[in-house]
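CO-FOLDING WORKSHEET

Operator: S.A.
Ligand of interest: zinc ion
Run index: 1041
Mode: holo prediction, single chain
Checklist:
[x] sequence pasted
[x] SMILES validated
[ ] output reviewed
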Amino acid sequence: MGTENPNRPNFPARPAVTPFAAQQSATPFLSSGSVVGSEAPPFRPVSTASSQFSTPPFSAGSEGPAFRPPPTSRSNELVRPPPPSASYGPPSSGFQHFPSPQMPSTGQLPPPRTSFTGQPVVPMQTRPPPGHVSLPSQPQPPSVPMGSPPQSIKTGQPNMNIPLSADQHFLPSRPNAQASSPPMGPSYATPRGTFQSAFPGYANMQPNSVAQAPTMQPSSFPLQQGNYGPPAPSTPFLSQQRGYTPGPPMSTPSGLYTGTQMQQHGIAPPLANSQGLAEDFSSLSLGSVPGSFDAGVDVAALPRPLGGDVEPKTFAEMYPMNCSSRFLRLTTSGIPNSQSLASRWHLPVGAVVCPLAETPAGEEVPVVNFATTGIIRCRRCRTYVNPYVTFTDHGRKWRCNICSLLNDVPSDYFAHLDASGIRVDMDQRPELTKGSVEFIAPAEYMVRPPMPPLYFFLIDVSASAVQSGMLEVMSQTIKSCLDDLPGYPRTQIGFITYDSTIHFYNMKSSLMQPQMMVVSDLDDIFIPLPDDLLVNLSESRSVVEAFLDSLPSMFQNNMNVESAFGPALKAAFMVMSQLGGKLLIFQNTLPSFGVGRLRLRGDDIRVYGTDKEHILRLPEDPFYKQMAADFTKHQIAVNVYAFSDKYTDIASLGSLAKYTGGQVYYYPNFQSSIHKDKLRHELARDLTRETAWEAVMRIRCGKGVRFTTYHGNFMLRSTDLIALPAVDCDKAYAAQLSLEETLLTTQTVYFQVALLYTSSSGERRIRVHTAAAPVVADLGEMYRLADTGAIISLFSRLAIEKTSSSKLEDARNAVQLRIVKALREYRNLYAVQHRLTGRMIYPESLKYLPLYGLALNKSTPLRGGYADAQLDERCAAAYTMMALPVKKLLKLLYPNLVRVDDSLVKTEEFDISKRLPLTIGSLDTRGLYIFDDGFRFVVWFGRAISPDIAQNLLGEDFALDYSKVSLSQRDNEMSRKVMKILNKYRESDPSYFQLCHLVRQGEQPREGFFLLTNLVEDQVGGSSGYADWMLQLFRQIQQNA
Ligand SMILES: [Zn+2]
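OUTPUT RECEIVED:
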């Protein structure tokens, strides 16, 4: 993120345009929206009738809505299609229509074809059995077309372009409502699940052998290092006591219950104990006299997250069987028992979920194959079996922890209970002992064969793309990653390039060289050779390599500056729509030709500060959001790589990534000499990281609470089903929780995240994360159990969403106001009682909240006004931040700053955790510092730095303009040490690559641009410094206190 060129003018001369011409309601950052929010329409089937002929690719029986009635005609009404809008699909004769394209290459057009044959996997239009939409006893998700939707390209009209023959072989298995609860049989066999490592299918694995992976020894799943044991029948939460010993009931903070307490349904939550809580807050002296601020603040005493993200421990201590916080974090693990309590907290109650977070070696998510037993789920709410279910009736029944229904234990899954009521096979059942588990999904969880991993590239080859070197770096990188693309030998690949025309490439394996076909009729896009544009990588490997080798030179003299991006996007859609997959777009210019062309906008300074300002941050043309909706419907995730030095309307382009679960990579003013390592690394990461395909995610929770808004890069497919055509470890999603009107009477609320996906090896899997949290009746407990990282993650997403409907200033004020209200409420709880009226007090758990709030307001999407960040940069940063996992986001908001010169002259290992406050006061003119926000490094050379250090690191370059100098390893100890430190930082989080910028003290505008504006504790421009911010908050907290 961020511009790499400080000399880039902030006020480029652009043609004056009318920026409000295309006002519309799409809000690119807004992903909440319940039933009929902005997300709903794109997923609506084309008509009520047609919806009956389409089956969601993930069995209706699989991710059924919790506590929701089966879809009936009413739910079909809910998913009524939008009125036919601008149609961008191919004409109905599209595939039969072959105008004479320019054919500079050897491409020979085949006779017209009417079907895509020859694809290894062809999703069929599926016709579910009658009665599919209403199985009375099994809640089913609304019947919504995804993956292989029928009449979708032209709204409301049968699409004749994609023949969908009803090949029996590919007909989906009928969602079998009974599968998960077969009748009890006489046999008490207890088949063992086979456990495999998650994410098989990468190049070094044999995909087909994975399913037969050796059964792991039961001992491989010890009960979490002895911290807890299997639940005893009478006290299923006994295990909690092993890791945490609560005090006597009255002195126990209400969030911590003994097992016995938790078993006793109906007891009143323990009273709050303010005495215990008093130890949990901190206070800060802000002037000797209340109301007097002149005395100032002891800046050194302000709290700073120099240790990075600190995850609250209480959650895991209370419930050792919970999934790891890397997968799920709650903004407070004290769930309020009433709406009024929740509203008094003022901070969002919700969760941040990173379903595929990377795990350290040894902590992989166990994989369970129930094989013929079927996956054990609650008959009513569809919760997956988990460590918090309890077994009764001699092991014949199990009680659902989310809805309390007593379910039959299928005969295949039966196990006797021991004397204490624990299943005798408990230690061999990860699903009953681990908070995270992955189930192999049987046939009823798919309506088409699992798709192969598919990578399609849409590449701008106009003059600037070639001249910047982007094309060359990209081609080389893709070629170097071919061995590591997931899913060998099923992986599919294809390419389209474009300038003012669109170029298709026949990659048939029998060819020596790819054949290029040029289509210049942009109004009537058709796909030549539909069978050979998307090929199996292993079969066509040599053709693909030949293409990538020749691509840069093919266009090296291209003077074409136009971009037929929209038509090319439609072409890519037509090629990919049968299978789905990942579409990687490399865009170097503003789309200028054909449908989806965009205008220069956003430089009208008069718009800023008015209520029209936010429109600049919205997609200009509804074409983009409509395309995104269709991509998602067809299981296509879009990643946008943007490179221009000029305005490219990232707001519009990025919405393609936003609504398809994708990602925006922004390299403003890309120059190969400067940015190639960054592009190489990030593209390689994108291509080779573990990816889950054609996924949907749902978060279930217990009665009385429900998730009502969702925030991140995705589309909602129904009220609570998140559609993710592709998802990986670098994506997180946030959701807000609402309480029902009635008081929560249970002691515990359970959450279960279920991600149903296709692995790169072609298995359907369900990753399930389960967690429990205590219900509290006391506000103090909510504060005590708060998680600042999760709160800030939710805050950031809410604030960014607000910038798409409000002024930047309003979004910032909203952040500030919520912090003020929360701390005011806290103050009201304790200040008078503890005679702390002249001090600012805050819970220990939220001590970094004000600083992160300040940092959020200074972040690229929210900072300042017109001149403080380029519009494209703001939008790119916003799209990026919407998807960031908690730790990554916190590091971006409050980056690392470390001093390294001392360690260069010493022998001991550098301690990379020695972070400094982000203020200019931390910088010594004799020092060498590294600033790392996870996206870039800034290496700052003090003016009085030892010449020895400068020379060792930069050689003769040390005297040059640092914009022309790059850091590379030289043959001396100091240089090796610095490079080692940088590499350590890079390795600690490989999701992005930090490009290294050198800055000399006083060298402007570089120093200001790269470092000073990012020292969030300092007052820069119109923004507050940390001390000043705390005074403002304190003043506001005291008002109406
Ligand atoms: Zn249930």
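REVIEW:
The first strand starts at residue 281 and ends at 285.
The chain has 27 helices and 29 strands.
[x] output reviewed
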